[in-house]
Amino acid sequence: MANTRRVARQRTNVQKAALAVGAVFLAVGILGFVPGLTTNYDALLYAGHESGALLLGVFQVSVLHNVVHLIFGVVGLLMARSRTQAKNFLLFGGIVYLILWIYGLLVGHDTAANFVPVNNADNWLHLLLGIGMIALALLLTRERSRSTAAQR
Fold first, then answer.
1. How many CB atoms lie within 10 A of CB 7?
2. For residue 28, is it within any domain?
3. Helices H, strands E: what count in the chain?
4. Structural domain contains residue 30
5. Residue 144 pLDDT > 80, yes or no?
6. 60 belongs to a structural domain
7. In what order do the strands lie in the sheet with 54-55?
8. Which residue has the higher pLDDT, 135 or 115?
9. pTM of the prediction?
10. Is residue 7 part of a domain?
11. 135: which DSSP letter?
12. Domains in the chain, number
């Protein structure tokens, strides 16, 4: 009888980071729908700056905002399957969060353009996430890139 067990490959550090980031986004997306952890839950709207719900009493959320976190989390978990996809998730996801940070700075918080919605706390979190995700993508793949170049 042939042994059909597959040998499990060890995940690289960048894959572990993408898996962790994806899991956190998935958890945040779920927590945004939990009354108590989301204050003013009765003011949770589908989208727009009128949503008065605050995750952990700080971060403005809406149904759309929570769904985006859920999707982003699932994408992170799926892309953590390979080193290249994990790097791309962290790198391009970080760029998206830096764009969201700029968007949050430029858009008036009480305008229809703030459809996500975001507040000042979200803006600073987006900046930190963007920098952090890009740093993880670059730092955790740097060694392998060097060793590959040295072998040529």
1. 4
2. yes
3. 4, 3
4. yes
5. no
6. yes
7. 38-39, 54-55, 59-60
8. 135
9. 0.85
10. no
11. H
12. 1
